[in-house]
Amino acid sequence: MFQVEYSDPRYKARDMLELILNKIMSGKTPDMIETTFLLSLKKQEEIQLLKRVARTIRKRHFGNKVFMYGFIYFSTHCRNNCTFCHFRKSNKGLVRYRKTPEEVIETACHMADSGVHLIDLTMGEDLKFYSQHENINNDLHENTYKHLHENTYKHLHESTNKHLHEAMNKHHHEWMGNQQPDGMKTVVDMVSSIHAKTGLPVMISLGKIPVELMSDFKNAGAAFYACYQETHNRSLFEKIRKDQDYDERYNSKLYAKKAGLLIEEGLLSGIGDTIDDTVNSLFEMKSMDADQTRSMTFIPQNGTPLERHPYVDPQKELLTISVMRTLFPDRLIPASLDIDGLSGLRQRLNAGANVVTSLVPPGKGLAGVAHSSLDIEDARRTPESILPVLEECSLVPASCDDFNHWISMRKLSSCITKPLNDSPKKYNKTSLYVENYPTLSAHQNDADLFTVNGHACHSATP
Ligand code: SF4
Q1: 452 pLDDT higher than 90
Q2: Residues 224 and 187 reside in one and the same domain
Q3: Stretch 292-296: mean pLDDT
Q4: Which residue of 197, 278, 362, 438 lies most exposed, with the fewest beta carbons within 10 A?
Q5: Is residue 343 located within the same domain as residue 277?
Q6: Structural contact between residues 327 and 350, judged by C-beta atoms closer than 8 angstroms
Q7: Domain co-membership, 150 together with 38
Q8: pLDDT tens, 334-379?
Q9: CA angle, corner 267, sides to 255 and 385, nearest 5?
Q10: What local confidence, expressed as pLDDT, does residue 132 receive?
Protein backbone atom coordinates (compact mmCIF):
# COMPACT_ATOMS: atom_id res chain seq x y z
CA MET A 1 0.00 0.00 0.00
CA PHE A 2 1.25 3.46 -0.84
CA GLN A 3 0.13 6.18 1.47
CA VAL A 4 0.31 9.78 0.37
CA GLU A 5 1.59 11.73 3.33
CA TYR A 6 0.90 15.40 2.99
CA SER A 7 2.94 15.83 6.14
CA ASP A 8 5.92 14.13 4.51
CA PRO A 9 8.87 16.26 5.64
CA ARG A 10 10.18 16.32 2.09
CA TYR A 11 7.27 18.50 1.12
CA LYS A 12 6.88 20.71 4.18
CA ALA A 13 4.28 23.35 3.49
CA ARG A 14 4.78 23.47 -0.27
CA ASP A 15 2.09 22.36 -2.56
CA MET A 16 2.69 18.74 -3.40
CA LEU A 17 1.38 18.92 -6.96
CA GLU A 18 3.55 21.90 -7.78
CA LEU A 19 6.57 20.14 -6.34
CA ILE A 20 5.95 16.95 -8.30
CA LEU A 21 5.27 18.74 -11.58
CA ASN A 22 8.40 20.82 -11.23
CA LYS A 23 10.39 17.70 -10.44
CA ILE A 24 9.08 16.14 -13.64
CA MET A 25 9.81 19.26 -15.63
CA SER A 26 13.39 19.20 -14.37
CA GLY A 27 13.87 15.83 -16.07
CA LYS A 28 13.17 13.44 -13.20
CA THR A 29 10.41 10.86 -12.90
CA PRO A 30 7.96 10.58 -10.02
CA ASP A 31 8.48 7.95 -7.33
CA MET A 32 5.75 5.59 -6.15
CA ILE A 33 4.27 7.97 -3.62
CA GLU A 34 4.21 10.79 -6.12
CA THR A 35 2.73 8.51 -8.79
CA THR A 36 -0.04 7.55 -6.37
CA PHE A 37 -0.66 11.21 -5.71
CA LEU A 38 -0.93 12.01 -9.42
CA LEU A 39 -3.28 9.09 -10.08
CA SER A 40 -5.47 10.31 -7.22
CA LEU A 41 -6.04 13.78 -8.68
CA LYS A 42 -9.71 14.67 -8.85
CA LYS A 43 -9.91 18.38 -9.61
CA GLN A 44 -10.15 19.12 -13.32
CA GLU A 45 -7.87 22.11 -12.99
CA GLU A 46 -5.11 19.94 -11.51
CA ILE A 47 -5.63 17.15 -14.04
CA GLN A 48 -5.35 19.67 -16.85
CA LEU A 49 -2.04 20.88 -15.42
CA LEU A 50 -0.75 17.32 -15.36
CA LYS A 51 -1.81 16.85 -18.98
CA ARG A 52 0.03 20.01 -19.98
CA VAL A 53 3.15 18.71 -18.31
CA ALA A 54 2.68 15.37 -20.11
CA ARG A 55 2.42 17.15 -23.47
CA THR A 56 5.51 19.21 -22.69
CA ILE A 57 7.50 16.10 -21.83
CA ARG A 58 6.29 14.45 -25.03
CA LYS A 59 7.35 17.47 -27.04
CA ARG A 60 10.74 17.43 -25.38
CA HIS A 61 11.39 13.87 -26.57
CA PHE A 62 9.36 13.60 -29.77
CA GLY A 63 8.80 17.13 -31.01
CA ASN A 64 5.37 17.43 -32.59
CA LYS A 65 5.59 14.05 -34.29
CA VAL A 66 3.23 11.15 -33.86
CA PHE A 67 3.56 7.54 -35.03
CA MET A 68 0.74 5.51 -36.58
CA TYR A 69 0.18 1.74 -36.39
CA GLY A 70 -1.90 -0.31 -38.80
CA PHE A 71 -3.80 -3.06 -37.02
CA ILE A 72 -4.52 -6.46 -38.57
CA TYR A 73 -6.48 -8.79 -36.32
CA PHE A 74 -6.00 -11.79 -38.59
CA SER A 75 -7.63 -14.53 -36.52
CA THR A 76 -10.39 -13.98 -34.00
CA HIS A 77 -10.31 -17.61 -32.84
CA CYS A 78 -8.81 -18.23 -29.43
CA ARG A 79 -8.32 -21.13 -27.07
CA ASN A 80 -8.56 -18.89 -23.98
CA ASN A 81 -11.43 -17.57 -21.92
CA CYS A 82 -10.44 -14.15 -20.67
CA THR A 83 -13.51 -12.79 -18.92
CA PHE A 84 -13.19 -9.30 -20.42
CA CYS A 85 -12.78 -10.39 -24.04
CA HIS A 86 -15.41 -10.50 -26.76
CA PHE A 87 -13.41 -13.17 -28.57
CA ARG A 88 -13.09 -15.57 -25.64
CA LYS A 89 -13.52 -19.19 -26.64
CA SER A 90 -16.87 -19.64 -24.87
CA ASN A 91 -18.55 -16.71 -26.58
CA LYS A 92 -20.68 -18.36 -29.24
CA GLY A 93 -22.55 -15.20 -30.17
CA LEU A 94 -20.19 -13.90 -32.83
CA VAL A 95 -18.94 -14.75 -36.28
CA ARG A 96 -15.23 -15.46 -36.23
CA TYR A 97 -12.77 -15.37 -39.07
CA ARG A 98 -9.30 -16.58 -39.91
CA LYS A 99 -7.55 -14.66 -42.72
CA THR A 100 -5.15 -16.38 -45.09
CA PRO A 101 -1.50 -15.30 -45.17
CA GLU A 102 -2.09 -13.86 -48.65
CA GLU A 103 -4.96 -11.71 -47.36
CA VAL A 104 -2.87 -10.53 -44.43
CA ILE A 105 0.08 -9.59 -46.63
CA GLU A 106 -2.15 -7.79 -49.12
CA THR A 107 -3.80 -5.80 -46.31
CA ALA A 108 -0.41 -4.92 -44.83
CA CYS A 109 0.75 -3.54 -48.19
CA HIS A 110 -2.45 -1.52 -48.45
CA MET A 111 -1.83 -0.06 -45.00
CA ALA A 112 1.80 0.73 -45.77
CA ASP A 113 0.64 2.69 -48.81
CA SER A 114 -1.76 4.63 -46.60
CA GLY A 115 1.14 5.89 -44.47
CA VAL A 116 1.35 3.83 -41.29
CA HIS A 117 4.75 3.33 -39.63
CA LEU A 118 4.28 -0.19 -38.31
CA ILE A 119 2.09 -3.21 -38.96
CA ASP A 120 0.55 -4.67 -35.82
CA LEU A 121 -0.19 -8.36 -36.45
CA THR A 122 -2.64 -9.61 -33.87
CA MET A 123 -4.45 -12.89 -33.31
CA GLY A 124 -6.06 -14.89 -30.51
CA GLU A 125 -4.17 -17.96 -29.39
CA ASP A 126 -5.46 -19.85 -32.41
CA LEU A 127 -3.65 -23.16 -32.58
CA LYS A 128 -5.67 -24.15 -35.63
CA PHE A 129 -4.21 -21.29 -37.63
CA TYR A 130 -0.83 -22.88 -37.20
CA SER A 131 -1.93 -26.46 -37.83
CA GLN A 132 -3.88 -25.42 -40.95
CA HIS A 133 -0.68 -24.28 -42.56
CA GLU A 134 1.62 -27.03 -41.41
CA ASN A 135 1.77 -28.84 -44.72
CA ILE A 136 2.64 -25.85 -46.83
CA ASN A 137 5.47 -25.01 -44.51
CA ASN A 138 7.36 -28.24 -44.39
CA ASP A 139 10.42 -26.38 -45.61
CA LEU A 140 11.24 -25.72 -41.99
CA HIS A 141 13.22 -28.89 -41.71
CA GLU A 142 13.43 -30.68 -38.41
CA ASN A 143 17.16 -30.08 -38.30
CA THR A 144 16.70 -26.39 -38.88
CA TYR A 145 14.30 -26.25 -36.01
CA LYS A 146 16.66 -28.27 -33.86
CA HIS A 147 19.46 -25.86 -34.71
CA LEU A 148 17.27 -22.89 -33.84
CA HIS A 149 16.27 -24.50 -30.59
CA GLU A 150 19.83 -25.32 -29.61
CA ASN A 151 21.10 -21.87 -30.46
CA THR A 152 18.34 -20.19 -28.56
CA TYR A 153 18.96 -22.20 -25.46
CA LYS A 154 22.71 -21.91 -25.82
CA HIS A 155 22.18 -18.18 -25.58
CA LEU A 156 20.10 -18.65 -22.50
CA HIS A 157 22.56 -21.06 -20.93
CA GLU A 158 25.27 -18.53 -21.44
CA SER A 159 23.25 -15.88 -19.78
CA THR A 160 23.16 -15.72 -16.06
CA ASN A 161 19.38 -15.72 -15.92
CA LYS A 162 18.89 -19.38 -15.07
CA HIS A 163 15.50 -18.77 -13.56
CA LEU A 164 14.16 -17.26 -16.76
CA HIS A 165 15.54 -20.16 -18.76
CA GLU A 166 13.77 -22.70 -16.57
CA ALA A 167 10.51 -20.80 -16.72
CA MET A 168 10.69 -20.57 -20.49
CA ASN A 169 11.51 -24.24 -20.86
CA LYS A 170 8.37 -25.08 -18.91
CA HIS A 171 6.42 -22.56 -20.95
CA HIS A 172 7.53 -24.17 -24.20
CA HIS A 173 6.37 -27.64 -23.27
CA GLU A 174 3.05 -26.45 -21.93
CA TRP A 175 2.35 -24.24 -24.92
CA MET A 176 3.33 -26.61 -27.68
CA GLY A 177 1.96 -29.87 -26.31
CA ASN A 178 1.57 -32.00 -29.40
CA GLN A 179 1.75 -29.10 -31.80
CA GLN A 180 4.56 -29.00 -34.32
CA PRO A 181 6.43 -25.77 -34.85
CA ASP A 182 5.95 -25.87 -38.62
CA GLY A 183 2.61 -24.09 -38.39
CA MET A 184 4.24 -21.23 -36.52
CA LYS A 185 6.57 -20.88 -39.44
CA THR A 186 3.56 -19.56 -41.37
CA VAL A 187 3.40 -16.54 -39.12
CA VAL A 188 7.16 -16.05 -39.20
CA ASP A 189 6.97 -16.15 -43.00
CA MET A 190 4.11 -13.66 -42.96
CA VAL A 191 6.19 -11.28 -40.89
CA SER A 192 9.11 -11.76 -43.25
CA SER A 193 6.99 -11.11 -46.35
CA ILE A 194 5.33 -8.06 -44.84
CA HIS A 195 8.66 -6.61 -43.76
CA ALA A 196 10.20 -7.28 -47.19
CA LYS A 197 7.26 -5.90 -49.18
CA THR A 198 6.47 -2.86 -47.05
CA GLY A 199 9.85 -2.04 -45.50
CA LEU A 200 7.98 -1.49 -42.22
CA PRO A 201 8.71 -2.95 -38.83
CA VAL A 202 6.14 -5.41 -37.50
CA MET A 203 4.62 -5.83 -34.07
CA ILE A 204 3.57 -9.36 -33.17
CA SER A 205 0.70 -9.68 -30.75
CA LEU A 206 -0.01 -13.39 -30.92
CA GLY A 207 -0.57 -14.15 -27.24
CA LYS A 208 1.88 -16.45 -25.56
CA ILE A 209 4.11 -18.03 -28.19
CA PRO A 210 6.90 -20.63 -28.13
CA VAL A 211 9.91 -18.75 -26.94
CA GLU A 212 12.25 -20.52 -29.34
CA LEU A 213 10.67 -18.55 -32.14
CA MET A 214 11.28 -15.09 -30.69
CA SER A 215 14.65 -14.84 -32.43
CA ASP A 216 13.11 -16.14 -35.62
CA PHE A 217 10.43 -13.46 -35.49
CA LYS A 218 13.05 -10.83 -34.84
CA ASN A 219 15.14 -11.98 -37.77
CA ALA A 220 12.03 -11.96 -39.96
CA GLY A 221 11.46 -8.25 -39.29
CA ALA A 222 9.44 -8.11 -36.08
CA ALA A 223 10.49 -5.15 -33.98
CA PHE A 224 7.99 -5.49 -31.12
CA TYR A 225 6.43 -8.26 -29.10
CA ALA A 226 3.19 -7.15 -27.44
CA CYS A 227 1.70 -9.33 -24.73
CA TYR A 228 -0.48 -7.59 -22.20
CA GLN A 229 -0.66 -8.65 -18.61
CA GLU A 230 -3.64 -6.25 -18.17
CA THR A 231 -2.98 -6.19 -14.42
CA HIS A 232 -0.05 -6.98 -12.17
CA ASN A 233 -2.30 -7.85 -9.28
CA ARG A 234 -2.02 -11.63 -9.34
CA SER A 235 -5.42 -12.36 -7.85
CA LEU A 236 -7.13 -10.00 -10.31
CA PHE A 237 -5.10 -11.58 -13.13
CA GLU A 238 -6.43 -15.00 -12.15
CA LYS A 239 -9.98 -13.68 -12.30
CA ILE A 240 -9.70 -12.03 -15.69
CA ARG A 241 -7.20 -14.22 -17.54
CA LYS A 242 -8.82 -17.52 -16.64
CA ASP A 243 -6.53 -20.56 -16.40
CA GLN A 244 -3.50 -18.67 -17.61
CA ASP A 245 -0.18 -18.50 -15.85
CA TYR A 246 0.85 -15.05 -14.66
CA ASP A 247 4.56 -15.79 -14.63
CA GLU A 248 4.65 -17.43 -18.03
CA ARG A 249 2.96 -14.46 -19.62
CA TYR A 250 5.20 -12.02 -17.80
CA ASN A 251 8.37 -13.97 -18.57
CA SER A 252 7.55 -14.23 -22.26
CA LYS A 253 8.17 -10.48 -22.46
CA LEU A 254 11.48 -10.78 -20.65
CA TYR A 255 12.46 -13.50 -23.05
CA ALA A 256 11.44 -11.39 -26.05
CA LYS A 257 13.58 -8.57 -24.69
CA LYS A 258 16.53 -10.92 -24.36
CA ALA A 259 16.00 -12.05 -27.93
CA GLY A 260 16.33 -8.44 -29.09
CA LEU A 261 12.69 -7.48 -29.55
CA LEU A 262 11.19 -4.34 -28.10
CA ILE A 263 8.24 -5.06 -25.84
CA GLU A 264 4.86 -3.57 -25.18
CA GLU A 265 3.09 -4.06 -21.87
CA GLY A 266 -0.48 -3.02 -21.23
CA LEU A 267 -3.05 -2.65 -18.51
CA LEU A 268 -6.81 -2.59 -18.54
CA SER A 269 -8.47 0.19 -16.63
CA GLY A 270 -11.75 -0.17 -14.74
CA ILE A 271 -11.87 -3.93 -14.33
CA GLY A 272 -11.57 -4.03 -10.56
CA ASP A 273 -8.15 -2.40 -10.39
CA THR A 274 -7.33 0.09 -7.65
CA ILE A 275 -4.97 3.05 -7.77
CA ASP A 276 -2.39 0.95 -5.94
CA ASP A 277 -2.75 -1.71 -8.65
CA THR A 278 -2.11 0.88 -11.34
CA VAL A 279 0.95 2.21 -9.52
CA ASN A 280 2.22 -1.32 -9.12
CA SER A 281 1.66 -2.00 -12.83
CA LEU A 282 3.48 1.14 -13.89
CA PHE A 283 6.50 0.23 -11.81
CA GLU A 284 6.40 -3.36 -13.11
CA MET A 285 6.53 -1.86 -16.59
CA LYS A 286 9.56 0.12 -15.53
CA SER A 287 11.11 -2.97 -14.06
CA MET A 288 10.73 -4.91 -17.31
CA ASP A 289 11.99 -1.88 -19.25
CA ALA A 290 8.90 -1.77 -21.46
CA ASP A 291 9.43 0.15 -24.67
CA GLN A 292 5.76 0.81 -25.24
CA THR A 293 3.22 1.10 -22.45
CA ARG A 294 -0.52 1.21 -22.94
CA SER A 295 -3.58 1.79 -20.83
CA MET A 296 -7.03 0.98 -22.18
CA THR A 297 -10.47 1.33 -20.68
CA PHE A 298 -12.40 -1.87 -20.19
CA ILE A 299 -15.50 -2.07 -22.41
CA PRO A 300 -18.08 -4.64 -21.23
CA GLN A 301 -18.65 -7.20 -24.01
CA ASN A 302 -21.84 -9.05 -24.87
CA GLY A 303 -21.69 -12.77 -24.31
CA THR A 304 -19.03 -12.55 -21.60
CA PRO A 305 -19.25 -12.94 -17.81
CA LEU A 306 -18.66 -9.18 -17.48
CA GLU A 307 -21.32 -8.04 -19.94
CA ARG A 308 -23.29 -6.31 -17.15
CA HIS A 309 -20.24 -4.63 -15.65
CA PRO A 310 -20.98 -0.95 -14.98
CA TYR A 311 -19.86 1.68 -17.48
CA VAL A 312 -16.23 2.62 -16.99
CA ASP A 313 -15.33 6.29 -17.23
CA PRO A 314 -12.39 6.67 -19.68
CA GLN A 315 -11.07 9.57 -17.57
CA LYS A 316 -9.07 7.05 -15.57
CA GLU A 317 -7.38 5.84 -18.75
CA LEU A 318 -6.57 9.43 -19.71
CA LEU A 319 -5.10 10.19 -16.31
CA THR A 320 -3.04 7.00 -16.53
CA ILE A 321 -1.73 8.00 -19.97
CA SER A 322 -0.56 11.34 -18.54
CA VAL A 323 1.11 9.68 -15.58
CA MET A 324 2.70 7.14 -17.92
CA ARG A 325 4.22 9.98 -19.89
CA THR A 326 5.82 11.36 -16.74
CA LEU A 327 7.21 7.93 -15.85
CA PHE A 328 8.20 6.95 -19.40
CA PRO A 329 9.16 10.28 -20.97
CA ASP A 330 10.91 8.84 -24.02
CA ARG A 331 8.74 5.76 -24.65
CA LEU A 332 5.82 5.04 -26.92
CA ILE A 333 2.36 5.48 -25.43
CA PRO A 334 -0.66 4.61 -27.58
CA ALA A 335 -3.79 6.60 -28.18
CA SER A 336 -5.98 3.69 -29.25
CA LEU A 337 -8.89 4.14 -31.63
CA ASP A 338 -10.32 0.92 -30.28
CA ILE A 339 -12.08 2.41 -27.25
CA ASP A 340 -13.93 5.53 -28.41
CA GLY A 341 -13.04 5.53 -32.09
CA LEU A 342 -12.03 8.73 -33.84
CA SER A 343 -14.00 10.88 -31.39
CA GLY A 344 -11.75 9.77 -28.53
CA LEU A 345 -8.45 10.46 -30.24
CA ARG A 346 -8.02 14.11 -29.35
CA GLN A 347 -8.33 13.57 -25.62
CA ARG A 348 -5.84 10.70 -25.66
CA LEU A 349 -3.28 12.73 -27.59
CA ASN A 350 -3.83 15.65 -25.28
CA ALA A 351 -3.15 13.35 -22.33
CA GLY A 352 0.38 12.77 -23.69
CA ALA A 353 0.09 9.76 -26.02
CA ASN A 354 2.34 9.73 -29.09
CA VAL A 355 1.22 6.72 -31.14
CA VAL A 356 -2.15 6.34 -32.85
CA THR A 357 -2.95 2.64 -32.75
CA SER A 358 -5.71 0.40 -34.09
CA LEU A 359 -5.92 2.00 -37.51
CA VAL A 360 -7.98 -0.49 -39.50
CA PRO A 361 -8.80 -0.21 -43.22
CA PRO A 362 -12.42 -0.60 -44.32
CA GLY A 363 -13.54 -3.28 -46.75
CA LYS A 364 -11.20 -5.98 -45.52
CA GLY A 365 -13.54 -7.70 -43.07
CA LEU A 366 -11.28 -6.93 -40.13
CA ALA A 367 -12.34 -6.46 -36.52
CA GLY A 368 -11.09 -4.32 -33.68
CA VAL A 369 -10.69 -5.74 -30.20
CA ALA A 370 -12.52 -3.70 -27.56
CA HIS A 371 -15.04 -2.41 -30.10
CA SER A 372 -15.08 -4.98 -32.85
CA SER A 373 -16.60 -2.74 -35.52
CA LEU A 374 -16.58 0.88 -34.27
CA ASP A 375 -15.59 3.37 -37.01
CA ILE A 376 -14.03 0.70 -39.22
CA GLU A 377 -16.32 0.35 -42.23
CA ASP A 378 -17.01 4.08 -42.42
CA ALA A 379 -13.27 4.69 -42.82
CA ARG A 380 -12.81 6.65 -39.61
CA ARG A 381 -9.83 4.56 -38.55
CA THR A 382 -7.46 5.41 -41.39
CA PRO A 383 -4.37 7.67 -41.43
CA GLU A 384 -6.24 10.14 -43.61
CA SER A 385 -9.16 10.39 -41.20
CA ILE A 386 -6.98 11.22 -38.20
CA LEU A 387 -5.05 14.06 -39.85
CA PRO A 388 -7.53 16.81 -38.84
CA VAL A 389 -7.34 15.63 -35.23
CA LEU A 390 -3.55 15.69 -35.30
CA GLU A 391 -3.71 19.20 -36.67
CA GLU A 392 -6.09 20.30 -33.89
CA CYS A 393 -3.53 18.99 -31.41
CA SER A 394 -0.63 20.76 -33.17
CA LEU A 395 0.83 17.39 -34.14
CA VAL A 396 1.94 15.87 -37.43
CA PRO A 397 2.66 12.31 -38.59
CA ALA A 398 6.31 11.35 -38.23
CA SER A 399 8.22 9.91 -41.17
CA CYS A 400 9.14 6.25 -41.43
CA ASP A 401 12.76 7.32 -40.95
CA ASP A 402 11.81 8.99 -37.66
CA PHE A 403 10.20 5.78 -36.46
CA ASN A 404 13.03 3.53 -37.58
CA HIS A 405 15.48 5.87 -35.91
CA TRP A 406 13.54 5.69 -32.66
CA ILE A 407 13.53 1.89 -32.83
CA SER A 408 17.28 1.77 -33.46
CA MET A 409 17.98 4.11 -30.58
CA ARG A 410 15.76 2.13 -28.23
CA LYS A 411 17.43 -1.12 -29.15
CA LEU A 412 20.79 0.44 -28.57
CA SER A 413 19.64 1.89 -25.29
CA SER A 414 18.26 -1.50 -24.20
CA CYS A 415 21.59 -3.14 -24.98
CA ILE A 416 23.58 -0.78 -22.85
CA THR A 417 21.29 -0.79 -19.84
CA LYS A 418 21.40 -3.12 -16.93
CA PRO A 419 20.00 -6.66 -16.80
CA LEU A 420 16.22 -6.97 -16.67
CA ASN A 421 16.00 -8.07 -13.08
CA ASP A 422 17.63 -4.94 -11.72
CA SER A 423 15.69 -2.58 -9.55
CA PRO A 424 13.78 -0.05 -11.64
CA LYS A 425 15.34 2.73 -9.61
CA LYS A 426 18.66 1.93 -11.24
CA TYR A 427 17.40 2.77 -14.69
CA ASN A 428 18.32 6.25 -15.69
CA LYS A 429 18.09 6.57 -19.41
CA THR A 430 18.32 9.83 -21.21
CA SER A 431 16.54 10.31 -24.48
CA LEU A 432 18.66 9.68 -27.52
CA TYR A 433 15.85 10.71 -29.77
CA VAL A 434 16.08 14.30 -28.69
CA GLU A 435 19.16 14.65 -30.87
CA ASN A 436 16.79 14.71 -33.79
CA TYR A 437 15.25 17.90 -32.55
CA PRO A 438 18.02 20.42 -32.23
CA THR A 439 15.62 23.10 -31.09
CA LEU A 440 14.81 21.05 -28.01
CA SER A 441 17.16 20.21 -25.21
CA ALA A 442 16.81 17.46 -22.65
CA HIS A 443 16.14 20.07 -20.00
CA GLN A 444 14.44 23.08 -21.39
CA ASN A 445 14.63 26.44 -19.75
CA ASP A 446 13.37 26.89 -16.29
CA ALA A 447 10.65 28.95 -17.90
CA ASP A 448 8.99 25.55 -18.20
CA LEU A 449 8.51 25.34 -14.47
CA PHE A 450 4.93 25.06 -13.37
CA THR A 451 3.05 26.81 -10.71
CA VAL A 452 -0.32 25.63 -9.63
CA ASN A 453 -1.85 28.74 -8.22
CA GLY A 454 -2.52 31.06 -11.06
CA HIS A 455 0.83 31.76 -12.72
CA ALA A 456 1.27 31.23 -16.42
CA CYS A 457 2.68 27.87 -17.46
CA HIS A 458 5.14 27.85 -20.33
CA SER A 459 4.45 24.48 -21.80
CA ALA A 460 3.18 22.61 -24.81
CA THR A 461 -0.17 23.72 -26.10
CA PRO A 462 -3.07 23.24 -26.41
S1 SF4 B 1 -7.79 -11.47 -24.61
FE2 SF4 B 1 -6.59 -12.58 -26.15
S3 SF4 B 1 -6.03 -14.50 -25.11
FE4 SF4 B 1 -7.77 -13.64 -23.98
S5 SF4 B 1 -9.60 -14.57 -24.88
FE6 SF4 B 1 -9.25 -12.61 -25.94
S7 SF4 B 1 -8.07 -13.12 -27.76
FE8 SF4 B 1 -7.92 -14.86 -26.33
Answers
A1: no
A2: yes
A3: 98
A4: 438
A5: yes
A6: no
A7: no
A8: 999 999 999 999 999 999 999 999 999 999 999 999 888 999 999 9
A9: 105
A10: 62
Cα 85 to middle of ligand 1, angstroms: 6
Lowest mean pLDDT: which of 52-61, 338-347, 401-410, 440-449? 440-449
Q: What is the whole-number distance in angstroms between the Cα of residue 220 and the centre of ligand 1?
A: 25
Report how many domains make up the chain.
2
Alpha carbon distance 285, 349 (integer Å) = 21
Mutate to test the pocket of ligand 1, among 98, 125, 208 (most ligand atoms within 8 A of CB): 125
- pLDDT mean across residues, the chain: 83
365 and 452 assigned to the same domain: no
Question: What stretches of 255-388 adopt beta strand conformation (E)?
Answer: 262-269, 292-297, 334-336, 355-359
What is the distance in A from the centroid of ligand 1 to the CA of 200?
26
* Residue in 256, 282, 261, 250 with CA at minimum distance from that of residue 410: 261
**Residue 437 structural domain:** 13-57+425-457
Same domain, 236 and 313: yes
Closest atom of ligand 1 relative to the 88 alpha carbon: 5
Does the pLDDT at position 160 exceed 50?
A: no
- Whole-structure pTM value: 0.82
Residue 167 in contact with residue 248, Cβ under 8 Å?
yes
Protein residue whose Cα sits closest to atom 4 of ligand 1:
82
Cα 77 to ligand 1 centre (Å) = 9
Q: Are 44 and 114 in a shared domain?
A: no
Q: Are 24 and 30 in contact (CB under 8 A)?
A: yes
Q: Is the pLDDT of residue 429 over 50?
A: no
Instruction: List residues near ligand 1 (CB under 6 A).
Output: 78, 80, 82, 85, 87-88, 124-125, 207
